[in-house]
TrEMBL record:
Function: Stabilizes TBP binding to an archaeal box-A promoter. Also responsible for recruiting RNA polymerase II to the pre-initiation complex (DNA-TBP-TFIIB).
Boundaries of every TFIIB-type domain copy: 32-62
MF terms (GO), sorted A to Z: DNA-binding transcription factor activity; TBP-class protein binding; translation initiation factor activity; zinc ion binding
Protein name: Transcription initiation factor IIB
HAMAP family registered for this protein in UniProt: TF2B_arch
Species this protein is from: Halosimplex rubrum
Amino acid sequence: MTSTNQRVTGRHVQPIEHTDEETDRESKSERERDECPECGAAGITDEKRGETVCRECGVVLEEDVVDRGPEWRSFDARDKAQKSRVGSPTTEMLHDKGLSSVIDWQNKDANGQTLSAKKREQMSRLRTWDERFRSQSAQDRNLKQALGEIDRMASALGIPKDARETASVIYRRALDEELIPGRSIEAMATGSLYAGARQAGVPRTLDELETVSRVDRKEFARAYRYIARELELAMEPTDPAQYVPRLVSDLDLPEETKQRAVELLEAGKREAVHSGKNPVGLAAAAIYAAGRLTNVEVTQHEVADAADVSAVTIRDRYTELLDADDRAA
């Protein structure tokens, strides 16, 4: 059984008969398909003309190419978002993963005109029913509240999106394993965020989380330990070097000081100075010691305030790091 198609080559139409063996040959790589039959050079696509032409001799390899891009142009992100006909990608940070429709809160039509009073009342009722249908079960309402808390706290602490996604997945797992009933949603959400930030390599201290959480430190610390134990989360000890970039940025120190602080911490780990020590205190001490070694004016109190540790901790730790660096040299 054969079928006859046509291919445009060099402005000439050539009939091509396709057998089963030739069908396999047609599934070659893009590079082989776009080779010029005259000179063997690769072809380039001119999207304005809808043609693929040889870059060397100009022979038309293909014409009437379908343009799969949008027919409109945009000049900034806002303009693109307004003209796009598709929604946002799915995300774990929304209880319905972003698959449902969203009714804009602004009372304006597609042309930007303000809606009439009757239309505004109608849209208000639609928003109410939309919210009810998006979270019908108790589990959906629980997840919606918890993910909202995670997003609020993460925004306040400057935690990136990938860590928020990880925290949302951890809370979803806890909800599926029925770990949430009987416990505070806010505490479990805070514990999930702490675990997600650690797994994503952007840890935050319990003291920082305490400033944004709606429950006290003891409660969400207990929730974190419970989540980590029941879900068997692989939590390695926090690396002090992970705190260095954020503290250096807060103190507006040069890159040289940052690199020297990381080197001091690496030397301290080789000498086992970090064992049993507060990682934030070690990072602060390394930054202060690196500042002295790179002739950058930064005081112990400035570093202590940025890291939320005491100046005494910095004095105790930075000498240990300097001694470890000397021994490792």
